[in-house]
Amino acid sequence: MAFAQTSASSLSASRILVTGGAGFIGSHLCDRLIEDGQEVLCVDNYYTGRRQNIAHLAGQPGFETLRHDVTLPLYVEIDQIYNLACPASPVHYQFDPVQTLKTSVHGAINMLGLAKRTGARIFQASTSEVYGDPTVHPQPETYWGNVNPLGTRACYDEGKRAAETLFFDYRRQHRVAIKVARIFNTYGPRMHPNDGRVVSNFIVQALQNEPITIYGDGSQTRSFCYVTDLVDAIVRLMATPDDITGPINLGNPAEFTIRQLAEMVIALTGSRSKLEFRQLPPDDPRQRRPDIALARSLLGWQPKVALADGLIETIGYFRECLGVPKIRVAV
Ligand code: NAD
Ligand code: UDP
Ligand code: UDP
User: Fold this and answer.
1) Which one of 156, 170, 187, 226 is the catalytic residue?
2) Can 156 be counted among the known catalytic residues?
3) Dist CA 191 CA 199 (whole Å)
4) What does the pLDDT look like over 14-70, one tens digit per residue?
């Protein structure tokens, strides 16, 4: 078995560990790595991820899965680690905040310990949440952020910030080859219908002609990146020389208000849904847009998929999931 010891097959392909591989982004990353001819070990505890996200990869020669919680040590032989394990939706990461912090912090320590022992290169899925409710706009990597360390989002934000610290300390202290990406809001097929994040919520509500739940007045902004664009950037970052560590912003700089997103989703689904305004959750960032100058110059990358096109793909996915037939295309 390639992940237990060096084998003849592992001499050509890289043995790649993807933690959180059964999740939304992780499953698309597994697809891409298998397409590229790599050997992939997908590790997940199925907390928010689903077996069905990776079911189509079962039986592929280079693909293997392991049910495992990254807060526990893991001894395998690998060349690269993509550390994505962590619930990402506010609803899910706030459900068990202590477990969220453990996943970010103990998970990072274990994966960094694994990288240190094996000499593997390691990627960390950090987040735009390290900027908190930003006072600098758009956010460059040099901005230190504005995070409430005691609030309900802190288990995620501070967990990811501590993980970044660990990554840079393992580099300084143990010379581990690290790649840290700050991922901005990403969407696409395979988001869980009950994920709770805005794109999936709005699409699921629109397809069922239910009220679209806007938190606050909908004037807060986000910048939405389609998942295949993001995966392309992640793989490019992993392939950069060792002196490129990040942190590097990955996201789509096109910025929309949440109300604009709601209106687009209604138009693209041809829904009869009405807007329903609800209370804004505490510490909800007012605005968010990545400065991607660094990604453009270091990775030669920029997103290709416009929001309307990505939404059409995602709507198609949720139609199938929910068994909602296509009625008409509004735009
Ligand atoms: P997701 O919830 O779909 O995926 C997370 C995966 O991690 C799931 O499969 C889950 O079961 C698994 N997981 C959680 N805790 C675990 C543990 N202790 N041990 C093993 N597996 C565990 O979310 P996603 O959107 O695919 O996010 C993937 C990564 O990208 C996360 O680290 C997230 O913080 C980061 N990220 C995502 C976004 C985004 O907009 N999607 C933005 C910034 C950062
Ligand atoms: N670890 C792991 N797999 C490995 C090597 C280490 O899961 O192949 C975990 C182990 O739990 C350890 C942690 O990573 O506690 C940090 O490892 P490191 O070598 O940095 O520290 P130490 O073993 O000295 O605590
Ligand atoms: N949001 C909303 N309605 C929903 C879900 C989310 O208005 O049903 C808002 C949320 O308050 C935030 C934005 O949409 O301002 C993005 O929320 P999400 O949970 O997707 O991600 P965040 O960027 O806040 O982590």
Assistant:
1) 156
2) yes
3) 9
4) 999 999 999 999 999 999 999 999 999 999 999 999 999 999 999 999 999 999 999
